[in-house]
Design brief:
Blueprint: H1 3-11, E1 19-22, E2 25-28, H2 30-40, E3 45-53, E4 59-67, E5 70-77, H3 91-107, H4 123-130, H5 135-147, H6 154-160, H7 171-188
Antiparallel strand pairs: 1-2, 3-4, 4-5
Amino acid sequence: MNYKEIWQKLSAIDCTNHVEKKNGLSYLSWAWAWATLMEHYPEATFSFEPEQTFPDGTVMVFCTVNIGECSRSMWLPVIDNRNKSISNPDSFARNTARMRCLVKCLSLYGLFSYGYAGEDLPQSELDRLYSPISAEQHAELTVLISQLDGAIDMPAFLKFFGISVLANLKQSDFQKAKLALEKKLESVA
């Protein structure tokens, strides 16, 4: 099984009857999404990485879904019912964000991918997220990599993000890459 086979199977599933609408946005029940995944890939697993808290008290959650040898990761801010980031979110808001992040991560495999096709984001934001990192961001990551002094498997790191050179890293992957490098730096220090 490979990414393409998984995508072909999961992207063909019609989720229409399981989509909920809130404040003009579409949501897929995490329980239904996970049950659907289990019907096709019962060996799949998911995990949540440590949350990232920003100086203003807002929080980003991270989820990874593994299907066989395939692995995809996603992130999502903890938001309120108006889709605004919450400062110092409580456990319920964090739990809700994690489960929404799980569904978003499943969309990277094809399940309900059309639900994230941009109808909820302005085109300018989509363009920003999918454009390559800036020269400043590239320099920031390069400094972290040089501080690791060979303690990182660069080909594996680049492969994880689906790129061949660091300069091609997408804006949407920058924070995840930076966090991974910082964690690796802490572990070797």
